[in-house]
Design a protein that fits this description.
By secondary structure, the chain is an alpha/beta fold. Helix content is 46%, strand content 14%. α3 packs parallel to α6. The longest helix is centred in the N-terminal third of the chain and has 36 residues. Bound molecules: zinc ion. The site of zinc ion (ZN) has 6 residues, from α5.
Length: 196
């Protein structure tokens, strides 16, 4: 590499080796490496919180609910959890995301959840997408897409609708296969018990 050859000709002062070693990498390359490290760390963080949501999904499935889980994160810590409770609570609005958002708002004493991140194991439906916007959730990370009800692109993309006032960033596909597997196993077992 030419820049290394160039640096090798530069005078080395005693005690300045670390500075020179760092300086040998072009600034753009250092910046690119730093961004890659940050993205890698963020991906690890997203996976960690998604694993917590997947555990809640498993708990929902064990209770006979469709296995969907969600956690709401503030300042790097989970402040609320939710899992699908529609059947047991006779509440069609008791989706994991809404359960977590309600709990977080109560805990914060604020119906706005600015700067929060919602992790959910399934792509949010239109109802949950609306709640996410009303709550001003900053970022949504979901695992598996929902081809029959997803409102972030699978059926409709409400977050791409600029006429709806929101600033939510949406990322999908984090541990998607683990979530999809849970759902597949749940519905297969259900069909096994009562074939239709
Ligand atoms: Zn929903």
């Amino acid at each position: 590499m030419s820049h290394y050859q160039h640096r090798s000709r530069a005078p080395h002062r005693h005690g300045n080796a670390a500075l020179n070693a760092c300086d040998a990498v072009p600034r753009e390359q250092r910046l690119a490496q730093w961004i890659l490290v940050c993205l890698f760390m963020a991906a690890l963080t997203d996976q960690g919180f998604m694993r917590a949501a997947l555990e809640l999904a498993r708990q929902a499935g064990a209770r006979g609910e469709v296995p969907v889980g969600a956690v709401l994160v503030f300042d790097g810590a989970v402040i609320a959890e939710g899992c699908n409770l529609t059947i047991s609570s006779n509440d069609p609005t008791a989706h994991a995301e809404l359960v977590a958002i309600r709990a977080a708002a109560q805990r914060r004493g604020n119906y706005r959840l600015n700067e929060s991140v919602l992790y959910t194991t399934l792509e949010p439906c239109p109802m949950c997408a609306g709640a996410i916007m009303h709550a001003r959730v900053a970022r949504v990370v979901f695992a598996a897409p929902d081809p029959k009800g997803g409102a972030t692109g699978s059926v409709v993309d409400l977050f791409a609708e600029r006429r709806l006032n929101h600033h939510t960033e949406v990322i999908g596909g984090v541990l998607a296969e683990e979530s999809a597997m849970l759902l597949r196993e749940f519905f297969a077992a259900k069909r096994g018990r009562s074939p239709q």
